[in-house]
C-alpha cells in the first residue's frame, strides 16, 4: 500500500512551535531521507607527505612479512625437532614449534595489517550511493561496474604507488612457501631403512620377557617365544622404532613336520624364527596353535602356516612372514646368521 492509499487522518503528524498539530498531506513521504554526513578528508588526502609516510609504513609491514617468512624457512632448517628451550612465561617448549609459530604469525599479521593500513589511509573513503537494481546485469550496469573498478584501482594508487604494489606481491608470493616447507613433516625419506633391521650375523636372540639370551633347550616343542636382538634396551630413544621391525616370533616344530625346504635349512633342530610383524598392516602377531602350527594376527585374522614357510592361508595379508636364519654360537646360544632377506611388515610400493 502506498502513501497515496492511506487516509489522511492516519498519516503521521507533526507539531509546530506553538504545539499545534500539523497534518501531513498524502503528497509528502512519511519517512525523510536522512542523507549522508559531509565527507571529512583525511590528512593523507590533503598532505602528500603524510600519504608518502603511510605508503612507507605499508611497504615496511609487507617487507617484515617477507623477512618473517624467510625466518620461518630458516627455523625449519636450523632447529632440531628434539631441542627444548625455556620461554617465560610459557615454560619449556619445543624451539622449533615456537620459532615456526612466531615467524608464521608475524608474516600473516603483517600482510593483514599492511592491507588494512593501506585501505584506511590511502584508498578512497568517499561514500558511494547506488540505487537497488534488478538482479540481472544490463549492459549499462556492466559498463558501470567496470568503470567503478577502474576508478577504484586508480584511486587506490595500485598502479601509481609501485613501492606498495611490489612489496605486497613479494609478501604474498613468499607466504605460500611456508606451506611447501611444512611438507617436510611427511618425511624424512625412509631411504633403505625399511629393508634393514637390527639383526646381523652373530647377534644373539634375547627373550623379550626375561631379557636373557636363548638356548635351544629353552624353546619347547609347541611353545611360542618372542625375542629381540642383543644390545637393544627398552630405554633406548629409538627402541619402539627398531622393535617394530626386529620383533621375532620363535616356535619349535618337529623337523619332520616342516614342509618348506628353505625353512628347514634356516632353522636349528626345528626351531624357526619369523618376523612377529603381520604383513597386512603391521600388527604384532601373538596367537599360535601348536597342533596346526598356525599363527594368527588378532587385528584382521590373517593366518600364517609356520610349518610351510609362514605362507598366508587366510585373511588379507599380502605375503608370507619373513624368516630369520638362525644357528648356535660357540657358547650354545641361539644367534642370527644375518638380517632378514626381505623387508618386514606391510607391503610398500618400492618393495619390488
Which features characterize this protein?
alpha+beta, Rieske_Fe-S_prot, 3 domains, 5-stranded antiparallel sheet, 352 residues, 15 strands, 4-stranded antiparallel sheet, Rieske Iron-sulfur Protein, elongated
What is the topology?
Layout: E1 13-15, E2 21-23, H1 43-46, H2 48-78, E3 84-87, E4 91-94, H3 95-121, H4 139-156, H5 162-174, H6 176-181, E5 205-207, E6 224-229, H7 239-246, E7 248-252, H8 261-265, E8 271-275, E9 287-289, E10 294-296, E11 303-305, E12 311-314, E13 323-324, E14 326-328, E15 334-336
Antiparallel strand pairs: 1-2, 3-4, 5-6, 6-7, 7-8, 8-13, 9-10, 10-11, 11-12, 14-15
Helix pairs in contact: 2-3, 2-5
Describe, in short, the structure shown.
This protein has 3 domains: 1-29, no CATH class; 43-186, no CATH class; 193-336, Rieske Iron-sulfur Protein, CATH 2.102.10.10. 32% of the residues lie in helices and 15% in strands.
Task: Provide an overview of this structure.
There is one protein chain. With 352 residues, the chain is of the alpha+beta class. The protein has three domains: 1-29, no CATH class; 43-186, no CATH class; 193-336, Rieske Iron-sulfur Protein (3-layer Sandwich), CATH 2.102.10. The chain contains eight helices and 15 strands. The protein has helices at residues 43-46, 48-78, 95-121, 139-156, 162-174, 176-181, 239-246, 261-265, and strands at residues 13-15, 21-23, 84-87, 91-94, 205-207, 224-229, 248-252, 271-275, 287-289, 294-296, 303-305, 311-314, 323-324, 326-328, 334-336. Strands 5-6-7-8-13 form a five-stranded antiparallel beta sheet. A four-stranded antiparallel beta sheet has the order 9-10-11-12, with no helix packed on it. Strand 14 (326-328) and strand 15 form a beta hairpin. The longest helix has 31 residues, at 48-78. The protein is elongated, with a radius of gyration of 39 Å. The mean pLDDT is 86.
